[in-house]
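Would you be willing to look carefully at the protein I have copied below?

:::
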Amino acid sequence: MSSLKDQIASIIDSNLVGTMATIHDNKPRSRYMTFFNDDLTLYTATSKDTHKTEDIEQNPYTHILLGYNGEGIGDEYVEIEGKVTESDDEGLKKKVWNEHLESWFDGPEDPKLLILKVTPEQIRLMNKKGQPPQTLEL
């Protein structure tokens, strides 16, 4: 049987789109984002001119849901609690860049492009058939 970390990594690797919640005026705000995974650290692209960047500057913590394709009530998914940092690093922008971002940005050099790095503090594996939620503390 694979380790909890391996099971979580498998779900993250096969589910690039999920929801990311931030806090705005003491109220939760969620939006769909596309994530890139590097050993459970997540990266996502955004514009510097969005509410989420303002939210993160006020409170750097986030809650992310990945998985649950809607194929059934028992779909496995992960809940990720983490801390977000913003990055203008050109190398990171090039690493995260893909053609899907062309609708919003002129390229990895676009000055509006900002990379959000999510360092997980806790990841919970949910809906594993016949098992209670399992938590990976990081």
Notes: The CA atoms of residues 118 and 137 lie 15 Å apart. The longest strand covers residues 113-126.
